[in-house]
Amino acid sequence: MSEFLxxxxxxxxxxxxxxxxxxxxxxxAIIKLFSADLVQYVNIIKAYVVDFxxxxxxxxxxxxxxxxxxxxxxxxxxxxTIIRRHRRKSQEFDQDELLGExxxxxxxxxxxxxxxxxxxxxxxxxxxxxxxxxxxxxxxxLEEQKNGGKATDKKDASNGEHRFTKLDLVDEKYAEFEEPAxxxxxxxxDFCERYRNFAASKLGxxxxxxxxxxxxxxxxxxxxxxxxxxxGTGKTSLPYSFGKFLGNxxxxxxxxxxxxxxxxxLGYFNEFTxxxxxxxxxRAVYEAGFRKEPSFIVLDEMNLARIEYYFAEMLSVLEMPTxxxxxxxxxxxxxxxxxxxxxxxxxxxxxxxxxxxTANNDDSTFTITDKVYDRAMAIELNEKAEPFEAPDxxxxxxxxxxxxxxxxxxxxxxxxxxxxxxxxYKLDGxxxxxxxxxxxxxxxxQVDDFVPxxxxxxxxxxxxxxxxxxxxxxxxxxxxxIPYVKDEIKELIxxxxxxxxxxxxxxxxxxxxxxxxxx
Length: 519
What we know:
Layout: H1 2-36, H2 38-49, H3 54-127, H4 135-146, H5 165-173, H6 188-203, H7 209-221, E1 224-229, H8 237-245, E2 251-254, H9 263-266, E3 268-270, E4 275-277, H10 280-288, E5 295-300, H11 307-310, H12 312-317, E6 327-329, E7 342-343, E8 346-348, E9 353-359, H13 370-375, E10 377-381, H14 400-413, H15 418-435, H16 440-456, H17 461-473, H18 486-500, H19 506-517
Parallel strand pairs: 1-9, 1-10, 2-5, 5-9
Antiparallel strand pairs: 3-4, 6-8, 7-8
Helix pairs in contact: 5-10, 6-7, 7-16, 14-16, 15-18, 16-17, 17-19, 18-19
C-alpha cells in the first residue's frame, strides 16, 4: 500500500510541476514578448537599417505597423470575449431574478382576484340575487339599495342632467326658426346655370358647366361624393359655394391621420362625466334633420386616414334601402333630457344630407379602396376653369324634397335609350370575360340614377355613360399589373370604338391610353 502511495505522490507531483512550468513559461514568454525582448527587437532593426534606402525604410515602418496592428487586434478580441462572458453571466442572473419577481406578482394578482370574488359573492348574497341573474339585475339591485329600496325608472336615469350640450343648442336654435320661401318651379338645367353664375358673380369662383352637371347628377346617384385632383382646383370650394347658394352653409371637417373608428367623427359618451363628447360632425348631422334645404358636410383630405375605418358605419348605414333604416347608435339607452331628434339613443341620417370628401393622391395619403369608390361618386378636378363674365345672381332656397322630385322626373323624361343599354351590356360582358370585372348591381343602379339627371342638366347621354365607365369601371385597372394586360387593353380600346363608335366614350379611351403608356 505504501509503494502505491509513493507512486501516486510522485506521479501527481510531476504532473502538477509540469502544469506550473507550462503556465509559467507562457507568462514569461508574454512578459518577454512585450518587455524583455524590446531591446533585441531594436538591435535587429539597427543591424539592418544602416544601409537602407527610402523604399526599405517605408517597408520597415509598414511591417512594424502591421505587427503592432495584429497584436492590438488580438488583445481587443481577447478583452471583448472576457467582457461578453461577464455580461452574459450578469444577464442570466438578472433574468432569473426578474422571473422570480414576475412569479411573485402573479401570485399576488391571483390572491387579489380571489379576494375580489369573495367580496362580490358576499354583495350578491346580501342583495338576494340568484346565480342566474344578469349584470343588469345586479346594477338594478344596487340602484334600489341606493334609493332606499325603490326601483329606478331607466327612462328617468338622467336625473335631469343633459348629456348633449351642442345638440341641445341646436334644438334651441330651431325652436322658433322661420323657413324661407322655397322656389319649387326651377328646373335642373336652370339650377345648374344659376349656381354657376352665382359662384362667379358673388364668390369669384369659376367652374366649367360639365363639372356642375357632374356634381348635381352625382347627388342623384349617391349620398357620398368624392372630389379628387391636384391642389388649388376648387375641390373644397365647390361644396362650400353650393351651400351658400342654397342658403345653408356647408360644414367643413378636417380629417386627421389619427382617425381610426367612428368615435373620431361622432364622438363618444364619457362614463365619468356622464356627458357625450360631441363633435362638429355630429352637430352638422343632427342639424340637417331640421333643414329642408340640401345640407353638405365636407370631409377635407378624407384619405389622410383610412376611410373604410372611421367612416365604415356611415358607409353601411347609407346602403340601407329605406331612409327609415339610416340610424346610427350614439348611446345604448335614451334619457328624457336627450335632444329632440334622438330616439332611444339613435340618430337618423336625414335625407337632406350629402357627404362630400376631398382627396389628394400623394405619398401622404392612403389609397381609396374599391369598397369606397363603389358606394361613392368620384369626380376628378385637375384643371381650373377660365374666368367669365356672369350676371349678378342671388342665392335661392330649394328643398331637398323638390330636388329629389326633379331627379325622379328626369328618370321619367330622359330614360337611358335601349341602344345605349345594349352597348353597356356588351361592354359589361366583354370586361367580365377578359378582365374579371363587372358593373354589378350597385353600379347598374347608379347608372340608372345618374345618366337621366345629367341629361336633364343639359348634358348628353354619351357624356354621362362615358364618365361612369371611366370613373367606376376602368379605374379598377389601376390595381392591376398593367404590363401583363397591355395587349388586352389595346384590344379593349378597339372594342369600345367598334361598340360605341369612333368618337364614342372619348374620356374612357383617353384614360386607357394614359395608363397603357405609363408602363
